[in-house]
Structure formats: C-alpha cells, structure tokens
Amino acid sequence: MSDTLLEVDDLRVTFPTRTGLVQAVRGVSFSLRRERLGIVGESGSGKSQTGRAIMGVTPPQAEVSAKKLAFDGMDLLSMSPRERRALRGSRIAMILQDPKYSLDPVMTIGRQIVETLRTHEKVSKAEARERALAMLQAVQIRDPARVFDLYPHEVSGGMGQRAMIAMMLVTGPELMIADEPTSALDVTVQLDVLKILDKLVAERGMGLIFISHDLRLVSSFCDRVVVMYAGKVVEQIKASELRDAQHPYTRGLLNCMPRIGFERHPLPVLDRKPEWAA
Asked: What is the pLDDT of residues 243-264, one digit of tens each?
C-alpha cells in the first residue's frame, strides 16, 4: 500500500472576468505523505486557491482541472458533489485564516463543534458534547466547559483559532489544510498553535498542508516546502535546505527578510523577472 496521501498533477484554477480568463493556479504538481508540507509565496501567488481546489470549496464560477487530483487513491474531480461534501470535513479538513470570519457569530463554539461532528457521524448529543469538550482540551483550552458555551466574539483571537482547530479535528481527518492559521496571532500564541498542530500530526499520523507567506516559520515547522509564484510551483525543497534554495525568486524572498544584528535599511526589494511567470 502506498504511503502517498495526496497526489496533485497539473492542477489549474481559472476564473472568468470582464477582461477575460484569469489563471490563478497554473499547472501545480506535488505529492503529500503523512508529513508537514509548506506552501509559500507572496499574496496572489495561488497558495490559497490551491488549497481550496483540493478541499473542493472554490467559487462556482471557477473552472478546476487537473491531470490527477487524488486523495487516498480516490479521484476528487470525478466525485459527485454529495460524495465530495461527505469527504470534506470528515477525512479532509481546512483551517481558515481568521476565526472571526470562519466561525458562525450567532452560534456558540460548542454548538458549532457538535454540529460538525454530528454531520459526519451518527452520535448522540451527549457523546458529541463529550468529544467536543475533549477536543477543546486537546487544543490546550484550559476551561473547555466554559468556552463550549461562549460565542466567538467572547473569546480572544488565539482561543478562537484553537476552537477552529478543534472543530476541524473533531472528526479525525487524515488530511489537514491550514491556510495561514497563525497570521492573525501574536508570536507567543503562534508558537502554541504550531505546537498543537505538530503534536496532532505526530500522534494522529495526519498529512498537513501548511500555507504561509512566512519563510522563516515554514522552514522551522515543515518537512518540505513548495514555493509558488504567479500561480506556478517554481521550486520544491526540503525545509531544512531552504537556505540553499536555487531559484532566484526563493533566493529573493529569503534576502528580503530582516536579520537581527545586521543593518539593512532600506530592506532589499525583490527584482522580479518576466521568465519566472512564463
């Protein structure tokens, strides 16, 4: 049995606009085992649209195609909407960027987690509540019973993100797509969330796609890195070898990062080449 969890070959996502077709993702290819794969690039490089295409939540007007888009040997593109919906949330889950816009503001956190679980599994309300409380505890929320009955606006950004992670993990997915899950958090909470994800990947044997614009964060957290520019993959490399990247775009991103102890004012500006997007 192959240990490859996800196969992506020549993935393309195209949006119709008034001025013509816009190719947000252009021929992206990679595979994922039960590991932590980082996808990095600047805003507009196609990172999030790649994750959404895998998840099956691109807008209706978008055209998604691929030579192969398979999860655990199943062709995602040939599935019916009902089959894809059953897979989404149960075996594949996605943590979105900001819990303020992802959690339902008129439902308590506990009710949202319970609803997610009961949508995919036939469990009683009592069992669903117990599992929701256990998952809130697993993401290091100290008083899960209290947070269970709170509304999203009543918790901090860090706690809201932990609640979002709990909701996505309560069904025990095999693949998690985390779309910049720490970008709205301060550094200390950021580290806590990464520790939670790292522990859950190790204990549950999940595959994790970690989407970010922070190269330093990805290099220290992920096993491998996919670098995207203008909707394309320009480089794939081990995270531990990111400093030795060869593509000039990756080198440019690394060079733009501030360094402690070095006077770099103004910071270097990335010198883009037309051939990178060709």
From this structure: 899 999 999 888 887 777 777 7
State the amino acid at position 10 in one-letter form. Answer: D
Give SS3 for 174: coil
Radius of gyration of the chain (CA): 19
pLDDT per residue over 111-123, tens digit each?
Answer: 999 999 999 899 9
Q: Which amino acid, residue 176?
A: M
Query: Residue 157 class from Cβ within 10 Å (0-12 exposed, 13-18 middle, 19+ buried)?
Result: middle
Domain ranges of the chain: 1-85+208-278
The SS3 assignment for 143 reads coil
Residues ≥6 apart with Cβ < 8 Å to 173: 89, 90, 91, 92, 93, 206
CATH architecture of residue range(s) 1-85+208-278: 3-Layer(aba) Sandwich (3.40)
Which backbone phi and psi does 204 adopt, to 5 degrees? -95, -10
Ordered alpha helix ranges (H), the chain: 47-55, 81-87, 99-102, 109-120, 125-138, 144-148, 157-169, 187-204, 215-221, 248-255
Q: What is the pLDDT of residues 17-69, one digit of tens each?
A: 999 999 999 999 999 998 999 999 988 999 999 999 999 999 999 999 999 99
